[in-house]
Amino acid sequence: MISTHRGLWGPAPENSLAAISAAGNYDIIEIDTQIARDGVPVVIHDPNLVRTAGKAMRPRDTDHTTLVAQYLYEGLGGPDASPTDEQLPTLSDALLAASPRAFFDIDVKYPAEIEAVAHFLAQSEQQHMGSLKIDTRTSADIEKLLSLQQRFGVMVMAKVVLPRTGLGHIRDLTKADVAAAEVWFDDLGQLSEACLIAGNDMAISTFTLDPVHCCGLSDTRALSDPDAVWGQLLDAGVTVIMTDLASQLATYMSAQD
Predict the structure, then answer these.
(1) Which residues contact 253 (CB under 8 A, 6 or more apart)?
(2) Alpha-carbon distance 157 to 16, whole Å?
(3) What is the pairing mode between strands 41-43 and 130-135?
(4) Cα–Cα distance for residue pair 46/77, rounded to 1 Å
(5) Could you tell me the CA-to-CA distances from 196 to 28, 79, 170, 236 in Å, in that order?
(6) Which part of the chain is the GP-PDE domain (predicted)?
(7) d(Cα 194, Cα 217) in Å, to the nearest integer?
(8) How many whole angstroms separate alpha carbon 219 and alpha carbon 155?
(9) Looking at the chain, which terminus has fewer C-beta neighbours within 10 angstroms, N or C?
(10) What is the mean pLDDT of residues 117-145?
(11) Which domains can be identified in the chain, with CATH numbers?
(12) What is this structure's pTM?
């Protein structure tokens, strides 16, 4: 499956309703969320709006009504980007911006806010529209993950750093019936073993983003040598690849069929 990173941004702003709507035909839409001062989750990656809207305001210090009035810069933003007509969205509006079949990978930027986001989704009856990720390393972390799922009815995804946890943690997650794990790895052989352990019982997700990737397997490298990046990940058995080049990955995968 293909996961679009912050929607299909460029020229649409990242994490905007336009980027999310454009990503609706892909399997998964990854978005970032934080809790505004008045308790409403909004969709933004950074701790402030400097890069994406040219404002120093921080979500945790600002009511959501002020945040959603801010106009976003195009693409990844920054000082040279132009403003657009797109405004910063709430999480609820973002989940409704794509097609009804869309599924979201909701990355809560501050772990302390995960339970509040889960509660908000349950109250809004939107808990079926996506999954929440939690860093896991121990059995206690797995119990916390499952508790979130049981109490709020939201799908959960474990975040796993394989060099730190080892393959035993993948076995524990699979035995606990966790549906998916986002994996960081520094050895393709270990990734393949993790995929074998998970089998059909747990999805294994990873990423080829230029800022964040494993073993040099980046989107930029994939443009010139997709077999060496996406091909190796598919051969290893991963279930989900998160990318900023969703259309190129889709074309590559279609050619493999």
Answers:
(1) 2, 230, 234
(2) 23
(3) unpaired
(4) 11
(5) 23, 45, 10, 9
(6) 1-257
(7) 18
(8) 28
(9) C
(10) 95
(11) 1-110+118-130 (3.20.20.190), 136-257 (3.20.20.190)
(12) 0.95
> pLDDT of 133-142, one tens digit each?
999 999 999 9
Q: How many whole angstroms separate alpha carbon 86 and alpha carbon 12?
A: 8
For residue 100, pLDDT beyond 90: no
- Residues 35-92 have pLDDT tens digits of 999 999 999 999 999 999 999 999 999 999 999 999 999 999 999 999 999 999 999 9
Is the per-residue pLDDT at 27 higher than 90?
A: yes
Cα-Cα-Cα-Cα dihedral sign, residues 188, 194, 197, 202:
negative
Buried b (16+ CB within 10 A) or exposed e, 161-176: ebeebeeebbebbbee
pLDDT of 154:
95
Q: How many residues are there in the chain?
A: 257
Q: State the pLDDT at residue 255.
A: 92
SS3 letters across the chain: CEEEECCCCCCCCCCCHHHHHHCCCCCEEEEEEEECCCCCEEECCCCCEHHHHCECCCHHHCCHHHHCCCEEECCCCCCCCCEEEEECCEHHHHHCCCCCCCEEEEEECCHHHHHHHHHHHHHCCCHHHEEEEEECCCHHHHHHHHHHHHHHCCEEEEEEEHHHHCHHHHHHHHHCCCCEEEEECCCHHHHHHHHHHHCCCCEEEEEECCCCECCCCCHHHHHHCHHHHHHHHHHHCCCEEEECCHHHHHHHHHHHC
Whether the CA torsion 91, 52, 76, 136 is positive or negative: it is negative
